[in-house]
Amino acid sequence: MGKFNPLRKRVIIGPIILFLTWAIMLPSQAQAANSMPISFHTWNGHEFKKGEFDNARLSRSNGRNVITLKNGATAGSWTSEIFTPPAPVTKVVASWQAQTPADSWLETRLQVRLTDGTWSGWYNLGNWSSASTRNPDGSITSRRGSVANQEDATGSIDQDTYWAKDNASVRSYRVREVLHVDDNASPQVRQFSVVASDPTKKAETPTSQTTMRRKIDLPVPALSQYVHNGEYTQFDQGGAAWCSPTAVSMVLRYYRSGPTAKQIADLPPDAAFNAHHRVDGEVDYAAYHIFDNGSPEKNTGDWPFNTAYAASFGLDASVRQYNSLRDIEAWIKRGVPIIVTLKWDNTSPDAGNHLDGTSIEKTSGHLMVVRGFTENGDVIANDPASPAGNQQVRHVYNRAQFEHRWITSKHGTVYVIQR
């Protein structure tokens, strides 16, 4: 079996505060945009009818079709038709929008067919429940978690991402959502999406030309993950590593959505959280309800868990990929901030690894909110990796550097969260 893609995408920003050394700016025509094949496909509404139902059915909720269990069933599934992207792919990430009342839960499955006709088995892309239970001993349990040690002749799973084996490509795939009841409460799935791409075919092109004609700076509230240092350390070592739930919380606050004051007040006691007077408690609530309990990951950086959390408040949220900042500019013009993932190393002798103006020197994986663009196309971002606190969160980053780091290190991956 071939060697699998070693690229990692997780969020690891430790509590050590490091301030950058200024680097040489990349030239305006640095290689940054991309021509990687990307396919994004969504099932919802009438599209669900094309799939197969087993002890599950379509129902109506808030004026739209949702998949739920048949009356009396304790488990059931919906399986999509076979979908063929326009071009072969090597990477697949699914995301879903669902309600999981009580402790009901979902299993997201994926089966792929390689270009040589070989079908994989059914991979598990993660078990999802928005619930977390505090046990009498103070520990937290949840059905939510990724599944380790999944590999076959076609590829393998890295937390939430399918990677084809070396020198192989996926021609088609199908997905399955398995629903499990709890206390007579059934999950409801209102949308299912897949983004598939082929990073092995990426070909960098010069920095994209901006579409901006004026500055747009959306009023996204600023939240720093470092405000939560030492809080709930059982969740991914605590707040200093919570860039993803912090970014999601900023976008939810922008939409005036998220947990209620009572829900935050009902979080279990934590010495550091209480000492900090539970400030910006929606970040702790997000980390508590996003944390991947699966082994070995156990972090808050699972991409579809973050979008599923946002979707649990009724928003339209999905994981997607783009090839240039022009795609994000289109969202900003519609009033939609976009969460991006990238990495940088300002200590590297290679200026291509730098992102000037950051508040920390380097990260192996990070998420921040793009809230706008200047009139010349530079990126205005709320960067939660801001040790000085919320007042330091807003940054302006050079377009060429930002696009280069986002495209080359994370294949243009984003969270799109909209009303």
Describe the structure.
This protein has helices at 243-254, 261-265, 271-275, 281-290, 303-311, 325-333, 399-410, and strands spanning 31-33, 38-44, 52-54, 56-61, 64-69, 75-79, 91-99, 105-114, 123-128, 133-134, 140-141, 155-158, 161-164, 170-180, 188-197, 205-206, 216-217, 316-321, 338-345, 362-373, 379-382, 394-397, 413-418. Helix 1 (243-254) runs parallel beside helix 5 (303-311). The chain is globular, with a radius of gyration of 21 Å. It contains 7 helices and 23 strands. It is α+β, with helices and mostly antiparallel strands. The model is unreliable at 1-29 (pLDDT under 50). A hairpin with a 2-residue loop joins strand 4 and strand 5. The strands form 6 sheets. Strands 17, 18, 19, 20, 21, 22 and 23 form a 7-stranded antiparallel sheet that branches. A 5-stranded antiparallel sheet has the order 2-15-7-13-12.
Poorly predicted runs are 1-29
Tell me the structural class: alpha+beta
What is the straight-line distance between the termini?
44 Å
Report the helical percentage. Answer: 10-25%
Mean pLDDT: 92
How many strands in all? 23
What share of residues are in beta strands?
25-35%
- Sketch the major β-sheet: 7 strands, antiparallel
Oligomer: single chain
Shape: globular
- Give the SSE order as H and E letters: EEEEEEEEEEEEEEEEEHHHHHEHEEEEHE
Rg, Cα atoms, Å: 21 Å
Q: How many H/I helices?
A: 7
Describe the secondary-structure layout.
Blueprint: E1 31-33, E2 38-44, E3 52-54, E4 56-61, E5 64-69, E6 75-79, E7 91-99, E8 105-114, E9 123-128, E10 133-134, E11 140-141, E12 155-158, E13 161-164, E14 170-180, E15 188-197, E16 205-206, E17 216-217, H1 243-254, H2 261-265, H3 271-275, H4 281-290, H5 303-311, E18 316-321, H6 325-333, E19 338-345, E20 362-373, E21 379-382, E22 394-397, H7 399-410, E23 413-418
Antiparallel strand pairs: 1-16, 2-15, 3-6, 4-5, 6-14, 7-13, 7-15, 8-9, 8-14, 10-11, 12-13, 17-20, 18-23, 19-20, 19-23, 20-21, 21-22
